[in-house]
Amino acid sequence: ELISSLRSKLRMLWEERELVLSEARECAERGEELEATVRELCKPNEFERYMMFIGDLEKVVSLLLCLSSRLARVQNAMRRIDGNTDAEEKQSLNERHKLLSRQREDAKDLKENLDRRERVVSGILAKYLTDQQLQDYRRFVQLKTSLLIEQKDLEEQIKFFEEQLGNLEKSIP
User: What does the record list as coiled-coil region(s) (predicted)?
Assistant: First the structure.
């Protein structure tokens, strides 16, 4: 019954992932249309700034999500430490936790810098785009970010349930 329930949950998550991937493709198409508009209207150096921002947006958000996920896994492992855990493993977990915490703080700084750059890019685009086009740009940036987060969350859930299912199947003769 539990195996059946886990398989059902996985099917739902896979379907949800397909929907999110479809939305991501639509978002990418809108991004390409916006890119063409910005290329047409802006000066080359302004267009380059826009493109760098859009490229860095995905990288920084993905980095933050990845580091947060890894940090959460290390924290979960640290909570499972007990009297039977050897000192070397405890030390390793503590070092990984410190390293990931520092890296996540650095990534947060990158995100703050990216937010400042977004305001600059927004200011540049405001000189060239109509109010509607500017709203489309802002919606695109927001949607791109939320889709990245949703995708990562789904991937984590799928991985978790696949591990659970695999462990359960192995435990049954």
Answer: 90-120, 144-171
